[in-house]
Specification:
By secondary structure, this protein is α+β, with helices and mostly antiparallel strands. Among the domains are: about 25 residues, no CATH class; about 70 residues, Alpha-Beta Plaits (2-Layer Sandwich); about 90 residues, Calcium-transporting ATPase, cytoplasmic transduction domain A; about 150 residues, 3-Layer(aba) Sandwich (Rossmann fold); about 100 residues, Calcium-transporting ATPase, cytoplasmic domain N. A 7-stranded mixed beta sheet has the order 14-26-25-24-15-22-23, with helices on both faces. Helix 7 packs across helix 8, helix 9 packs parallel to helix 27 and helix 18 packs across helix 19. The longest helix is centred in the last third of the chain and has 35 residues. It is elongated, with a radius of gyration of 33 Å. The protein starts with 12 loop residues before the first helix and ends with a helix.
Length: about 725
């Protein structure tokens, strides 16, 4: 909020120039708090409406706007508003939320580039239609005066259009020439500029052989291809920046027994920080006071919280669940484990960006070939015509135009767009322009477990087989806790129609469980050792009823729909399958046995997953990584190609090349098949372009190519490429 100073009329010039007291007071007033929260589970217009209306009811919130594409909400609120208050409000609405640091997020440069490209495409399309109409009149035998007038009108339309709409190609070509290399945009730019310049000269001298229609049409078709290519990657952003934004921007530092909120950059090793229940760890450190349970699922993939207490090590990004903790800082900011993970992702992304697409590889041969052919034709005709520079230049430019980079430029975007449309209808969103080509090369598939092959939500097993009165008692105790198992137990008991028992003196013991009194007896629900039970091999919570042997309530995590079908389909395709999980050995072994995956690893840290992917890649394997957690981001970025569910954390989704929109994971097998067929279509399009050039180029080299022939041939090749791509639909 910016205060505007207004000078009021006064007899005294000094008074008139001085700001009013009200304006000074407005300047001195605190600014609005601007907070940005990640919303991993928001997915539709109803979510957007619910979040915005729900936050608007929070006292102190001035405005809330949800961006579904980025899955974020931007909140303008009173200066004393905290992210914790907003996160708690969103939790009551049923939405998971994480605070993001606005200072580390990307700007709107990508959106501006997309709008600029669309604007240049629109201008080229409008100009092309008008120049084509004028060209029809010229080609149909207009009178001399009419023809000259139409040519000048065409020039007036084409010249500013080429200068304006051709900027993306001109800038790229100039950068390539400065780097002493030839890319696809060099012959494109040369063809457009020479065609326009020669046409203008022809118009000025009255020769009548103009290429304005071909130059503008070439610009339009190539911009269309560039736009399609850009749209396939419009939603892709840097996972490293998203990870950095997930770092907690502020922390509560203890100074002389007082709590002081400071920026993370102000923390130093040895400082003491307070982390309240529900808050994320702002630093790496060691617990010096308090006990609690820590949710490490974002970092390690462990499906269950772990106990922590004095002398336990904690890491930035973990969530403190049940009790307040005092932590001595060992690393903060750029030195934290979360930031080191962001560095891992950045390195992996850089390596992946070195992948060269089929179009780029074709351009490495095509670009110098076109130049040599056109230049050779120019020299031959210069010799045959005994130095007629005008004739030789005219034929040389015709060769450069009719070789038509248009079909080659559309070959990949047209196929990617058609394939992306088909996969989108199957629940898969392609984010990267080269993802399909890389997916077609996959021979090894690596899966995460929790949230990927399973739903990541524990549910009680055979609750109906347990005594109803015991389940009602357990539900009453569980209602006092925010532990994932407790919440799942309350939900299951409610779904079964059970009314919680009456329990008094409820108290949650951080890191252990909940205790209270029922019918005069002390009762407990929590960890096995706390209630005196023998722990099972599976995930479970334990109920001490105050009499007799404690009751074990086991939990399971259901398979994601389509998991069994996907693994079977991948085996049928001959793919090697590997399961990498940060979860416990028993849980991973049980899932691997159910799905028939022989190669599995439990207890894997983020760096372990990235290292395994790197080792497989170094061995010549082309790896597809499928994961959903913060602990998977480095592996997703390091893999040859990667897929993440829409329910995944923001950082995992942006690191992935493909997003699985629905719960059913089976369409991944079809995506591999579509990718192989898409690669074939791309190669076929290159063949169409080559065949076209074999027919058209000799005509141009013999001086037989008229502007009409060039324009029609160019359009025919582009339409053929597009129709071939549509076969994928």
């Amino acid at each position: 909020m910016t205060a505007t100073l207004r000078a009021t009329p006064s007899a005294c010039p000094a008074c008139a120039a001085a700001p009013s007291a009200e304006a000074l007071a407005e300047l001195a007033a605190p600014k609005e708090a601007r907070l940005i929260l990640s919303l991993p589970t928001a997915h539709c217009a109803a979510c957007m409406s619910t979040v915005e209306r729900g936050l608007a009811k929070v006292p102190g919130v001035h405005d809330a706007r949800v961006n579904l594409t980025l899955k974020r909400v931007a909140v303008a609120a009173a200066p004393d508003m905290t992210a914790e208050t907003l996160i708690a409000a969103l939790d009551r609405l049923g939405y998971e939320a994480h605070e993001l640091d606005p200072g580390t997020l990307t700007s709107t440069a990508a959106d501006k580039a997309w709008r600029e490209l669309l604007m240049r495409l629109s201008v080229a399309g409008f100009a092309m239609m008008n120049v084509m109409l004028l060209s029809v009149a010229i080609w149909s035998g207009a009178e001399q005066a009419t023809r000259i007038m139409f040519e000048w009108i065409s020039a007036a339309i084409a010249l500013p259009t080429v200068v304006f709409s051709g900027q993306p190609f001109f800038r790229s070509a100039l950068a390539a020439l400065k780097a002493r290399r030839l890319g696809m945009d060099v012959p494109i730019s040369l063809a457009i500029l020479l065609a326009t310049a020669l046409s203008f000269y022809e118009t000025a001298v009255g020769q009548g052989h103009t290429y304005f229609d071909a130059a503008v049409a070439l610009t339009f078709f190539l911009l269309a291809g560039r736009y399609l290519d850009y749209r396939t990657r419009a939603v892709a952003r840097s996972a490293a920046e998203e990870l950095a934004a997930l770092e907690v921007p502020r922390a509560i530092r203890l100074e002389g027994g007082q709590e002081v909120t400071v920026a993370i950059a102000d923390l130093r090793p040895g400082n003491l920080v307070r982390v309240r229940p529900g808050g994320r760890m702002p630093v790496d450190g060691v617990v010096v006071d308090g006990t609690s349970e820590i949710d490490r699922s974002l970092l390690t993939g462990e499906s269950l919280p772990v106990w922590t207490g004095p002398d336990a090590t904690v890491s930035a990004g973990e969530v403190n669940l049940t009790g307040p903790l005092t932590v001595r800082v060992t690393a903060a900011g750029r030195d934290s484990s979360l930031h080191r993970m962001a560095d891992l992702v950045a390195v992996a992304e850089t390596a992946k960006n070195r992948y060269t697409s089929l179009a780029d590889r074709a351009a490495q041969i095509y670009a110098p070939g076109v130049h040599l052919l056109a230049f050779g034709t120019f020299l031959v005709w210069l010799w045959l015509s005994q130095g007629d520079l005008y004739l030789a230049l005219n034929i040389g430019v015709a060769v450069l135009i009719i070789t038509c980079p248009c079909a080659l430029g559309l070959a990949v975007p047209a196929v990617v767009t058609a394939a992306s449309g088909r996969l989108f209808r199957k629940g898969l969103l392609i984010k990267d322009g080269t993802a399909l080509e890389r997916l077609a090369e996959v021979d090894t598939v690596v899966f995460d477990k929790t949230g990927t092959l399973t739903m990541g939500a524990p549910e009680p097993v055979d609750l109906h087989n347990l005594p109803p009165e015991d389940v009602a008692l357990a539900a009453a105790l569980a209602a006092a806790s925010s532990h994932p198992l407790a919440r799942a137990l309350v939900t299951a008991a409610s779904a079964a129609g059970l009314v919680p028992a009456t329990v008094t003196d409820l108290r949650e013991v951080p890191g252990y469980g909940v205790e209270g009194r029922h019918e005069g007896r002390p009762v407990r629900l929590g960890r096995a050792e706390w209630v005196g039970a023998v722990p099972l091999e599976v995930t479970a919570t334990y109920l001490d009823r105050g009499q007799g042997k404690p009751l074990a309530i086991p939990f399971t995590d259901h398979l994601r729909p389509g998991a069994e079908a996907l693994v079977a389909a991948l085996k049928a395709q001959g793919k090697a399958i590997c399961l990498l999980s940060g979860d416990s050995r028993g849980a991973v072994a049980d899932l691997a046995d159910r799905l028939g995956i022989a190669d599995w690893t439990a207890g894997a840290l983020p760096e372990d997953k990235a290292a395994r992917i790197a080792a497989l890649s170094a061995g010549g394997n082309r790896v597809l990584m499928v994961g959903d957690g913060l602990n998977d981001t480095a592996a997703l970025a390091a893999a040859h190609v990667s897929i993440s569910p829409a329910s995944a954390l923001d950082a995992a989704r942006v690191a992935a090349d493909i997003v699985l929109l629905g719960q059913d994971i089976a369409p991944i097998a079809e995506a591999l098949d579509v990718a192989r067929r898409a690669t074939r279509r791309i190669k076929e399009n290159f063949g169409v372009s080559a065949l076209y050039n074999l027919v058209a180029v000799p005509l141009a080299m013999l001086g037989l190519a008229t502007p009409l022939m060039a324009a029609l041939a160019m359009s025919a090749s582009s339409i053929t490429v597009s129709l071939n791509a549509l076969r994928l639909r």
